[in-house]
Each structure stands twice: as C-alpha cells, then as structure tokens.
Amino acid sequence: MKHKAIEKAIEILGSQQALAKRCGKAQSTVCDWLNCKNKISPEFVPLLVAAVDGKIQAYEFRPDLPELFPHPSLARTGEVK
C-alpha cells in the first residue's frame, strides 16, 4: 500500500529526491513514508505542504490526526474537538 499524498507530492515534484530535498530529509525517509513503513512526524507536515506549494493539504498527509490537521469541511463546522 502506498501513501497517496506522498505519491502525489512525488508526482508534483518529479522524484523522491526532489521531495526529500525540499523538506530537508533523506530520500530514504521519503521512500519509507511512501511505502507506509514510517508515519510522517507531525512536525514535517507543514514542510510537505510548503514543498508542494499547498497543492496537497496537511490533513491529506496525516488524516489520522484530525485534531492537528482537520479536514477543511470539519474545521468550518467545528466538529473536530
């Protein structure tokens, strides 16, 4: 199983190496994220969003953390607590 947001980020930037360079991580770390071997640390989510110029939102990188990275529709309605 691949991490869809990381896969999309790689597509946008052209390579795992390009994404790694943009967020200051090793290419092997990006590979681990892509293959769901390691979860993306919350501290790196804003760097990933910036790396793709906001084309992928924070909640897409860590949908399991809605309290930190709420889906925009939930944030507007105040459903996330």
Automatic annotation (TrEMBL):
InterPro entries: Lambda_DNA-bd_dom_sf, YdaS_toxin-like. GO terms for molecular function: DNA binding. It comes from the Bacteria. This is Helix-turn-helix domain-containing protein. Gene3D superfamilies: lambda repressor-like DNA-binding domains (1.10.260.40). Pfam families: YdaS_toxin.
